[in-house]
Amino acid sequence: DFSNSGNNWISLNLLHRVFYRFIIKFLYKKIDKIFYITPEGGYFLNRFYKIPYKYMDLLPLGADTDCINGLKKQSSKSSVRTKYNINKSDFVIFTGGKLNKIKKTSLVIELVNNLKNSSVHLFIIGESFDEDYDSELKNLANKNPRIHFTGWVGSNEIYKFMLISDVAIFPYSQSVLWQQCIVAGLPLIVGSGPGIDANYLNRNNNIFILNEKEIN
């Protein structure tokens, strides 16, 4: 969709409108159904690949429910909290993903720094492929002992961090972590904007959706 594709003339007109569209048309008769994982992705396919909506369905990304339910039965919550010196009554915020400037992770770090509350912790799962931006985020955290940079963790390990958290905050840019957090039982605070809208996931009103002007 427009949040990660077709951001310049060459990508939009040569890659999508010509090259990829030609491949899809060649294979079209062999395909029974095309799934798009976000509403914006469906719009992109319809507009630039000319695929009718009647041949497509929305299929949101999901999470490993068996793994999550298994971890809930274990004592993984207490072991993770002990490792990071987090009390049972402390409030834990989750965020992360492939960290880049569009995700606005810096705002979550600033939030925790500004709260100056010793019972609030932040887990940042993942890292940036841009070393300068990675350093920028860590400098912003200013060695705050309540802000924990874990780097990349295994697919099962990531659920352990979700299960000890109280809320997940993603200021901007969609990620499969949204769906994983929902399945883990976390309420979400997410930012919306052009090509980014979480309403299709908000089945039980557990997502607080901020418009662009509210993301600060």
Number of strands: 8
The largest sheet, given as strand count, sense and whether it forms a barrel, is: 6 strands, parallel
List the uncertain runs: none
Shape: globular
What's the order of the H and E elements?
Answer: HEHEHHEHEHEHEHEE
Query: Which structural class matches the secondary elements?
Result: alpha/beta
Distance between the termini: 24 Å
Rg from Cα: 19 Å
Q: What portion of residues belong to β-strands?
A: 15-25%
Classify the helix fraction into a percent range: 25-40%
Number of helices: 8
Mean pLDDT: 90
Give a short overview:
With 216 residues, the protein is α/β, with parallel strands linked by helices.
Topology readout:
Elements (H helix, E strand, L loop, with lengths): L8 H19 L6 E3 L2 H10 L7 E3 L6 H9 L2 H8 L7 E6 L8 H11 L4 E6 L5 H11 L5 E5 L3 H9 L3 E4 L5 H8 L4 E4 L15 E4 L6
Parallel strand pairs: 1-2, 3-4, 3-6, 4-5, 6-7, 7-8
Helix pairs in contact: 3-7
Observed structural traits:
six-stranded parallel sheet, 8 helices, alpha/beta, two-stranded parallel sheet, 8 strands, single chain, 216 residues
Give a verbal description of the structure.
With 216 residues, the chain is of the alpha/beta class. The chain has helices at 9-27, 39-48, 65-73, 76-83, 105-115, 131-141, 155-163, 176-183, and strands spanning 34-36, 56-58, 91-96, 120-125, 147-151, 167-170, 188-191, 207-210. It has a 6-stranded parallel β-sheet with strand order 5-4-3-6-7-8, with helices on both faces. α3 (65-73) packs across α7. The chain starts with 8 loop residues before the first helix and ends in a 6-residue tail after the last strand. The mean pLDDT is 90.
